[in-house]
Design goal:
By secondary structure, the protein is of the alpha+beta class. It has a domain at about 1-60. It has helices at about 60-95, 105-110; strands at about 1-15, 20-35, 35-40, 45-50, 55-60. It is elongated and about 70 Å long. The two termini are about 50 Å apart. About 5% of the residues are buried.
Length: about 120
């Protein structure tokens, strides 16, 4: 079992070694296995093997750098997604003819322009 509280974290399962590893970058996570509970705060990681005994350690600079690169890329992707949404919305609005109230059904004016 694991719990999360306003947290940015990563989890990995190594099938060959039957180990779960977790790294906390923001906030706190906890694990509970076979009656053992471990709290993993920001900047720390834990490895839990088949015995359920968590081993805590501080994150390496490499782990932190890797997360920062991922976070930067995720932010850029989110920004690009919003730009694309805004562009599609603007194109859709440009394709809609100006409709003067009382001059026909707005649905009949819009649908052919949108390809429906």
């Amino acid at each position: 079992m694991a719990g999360v509280r306003g947290t940015v974290f990563g989890v990995d399962y190594d099938q060959a070694h039957q180990q779960v590893s977790a790294a906390t970058f923001e906030g706190t996570i906890f694990t509970q296995s076979q009656g053992r509970t471990a709290t993993i705060d920001k900047g720390y990681g834990a490895v839990v093997d088949h015995t359920g005994a968590p081993t805590l350690s501080q994150l390496t600079q490499g782990q932190i750098s890797s997360f920062q690169q991922f976070d930067n890329i995720a932010g850029l992707l989110e920004q690009k997604k919003q730009e694309m949404i805004d562009d599609m919305k603007n194109r859709a609005l440009q394709a809609v003819p100006q409709v003067v109230p009382g001059q026909g059904d707005i649905q009949n004016a819009i649908m052919p322009k949108l390809g429906f």
